[in-house]
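Quick note —
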Amino acid sequence: MTMGLDKVVGSAAEAVADIAEGSSLAVGGFGLCGIPSVLIEALLATGVGGLSVSSNNCGVDDWGLGLLLNEKRIVRMTSSYVGENKEFERQFLHGELEVELIPQGTLAERLRAGGAGIPAFFTPAGVGTQVADGGMPWRYDGSGGIAVASPPKETREFDGRDYVLERGIVTDFALVRASVGDRHGNLVFDKSTRNFNPLVATAGRITIAEVEQLVEPGEIDPQTIHTPGVFVQRVVALTPDQAADKRIERRTVSKES
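Predicted structure written out below.
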């Protein structure tokens, strides 16, 4: 193994130590699966705030990004689904948090485009709505009025159909959680955790991955790698207890017969 390619750092605290006040973050996960909870807790411990976060959702009140939100460390969210967090709702409606809500597929493509070096793209999603026309509340004034509204976006017709221009997302840092990773930063995501994590991993200028199982280079079949190590700068190996800490969004059990 070439030691210069060993991206494993000693702890989550070390991995997030240079995330500064006012940084922009892309954070992986979908619902409550694939959440880089250990890195988020380490970031919470640093006391850093003023964060602008792009993530499908903002966790729940007591876990994931919800921890940063409760401490008012997040000033802006770019998300597609925020319905599981009461504190998120309160901060948004009281003018304490700026929120850009966008279609889920558009968020995914904005992250992918940013990671691929594509500055913008046209999509039909949102045409004819406030997503394209502007006026969607980004921040309230605390009294029910709108303090900041979304601006109108460029639209263009292609082959008789209207499309809206969306910008790619590139952030200072990206935080992801992988099921398996090696010392070179190659990552594999299991099932639903693959939803946003691979896209987020490409969007950060510095990407930090917490991995449930750390293996040596060459142990992962190259054909099964979801995120190549070229996109990942730091790897944190989780303890068995940390790897096993997973939430269930809605527990459903069958009735006894």
